[in-house]
Amino acid sequence: MEPPPTAIDLKKDKGLTVQWADGGTSYYSIAYLRKMSPSAEMKELRQEQAKNPLAILPASAVRALGSGVLVAESAELVGNYAIRIRFSDGHDTGIYSWPYLREIDPGAK
Q1: What is the mean pLDDT of each run of 10 residues along the chain (109 residues)?
Q2: Cα-atom radius of gyration of the chain, to the nearest Å?
Q3: pTM, rounded to two decimals
Q4: CATH code for 7-108?
């Protein structure tokens, strides 16, 4: 199991910086975190878009990916294994586990 980060810094209008126990650092923009939410709704949407890039987005996804300013309104630790972020579009059902954050680290690609 992934050890918890040694430090977490959320800039609500910019992004999340995570310092890992192994000394590595990851940065996730707010828009990227919202797009990569591990919620069932967003997983399904990403799968549909992978199969059909011309898929019509549901209204909730249009708001999430739209041109409005998206910010993180709050965040809370979930046990010792994850963080939950509430976004300004109302989305708060994604729980970002430490292994999932490592998996989606944009700097590791």
Answers
A1: 90 96 96 91 83 70 61 94 93 94 90
A2: 14
A3: 0.82
A4: 3.30.2020.30
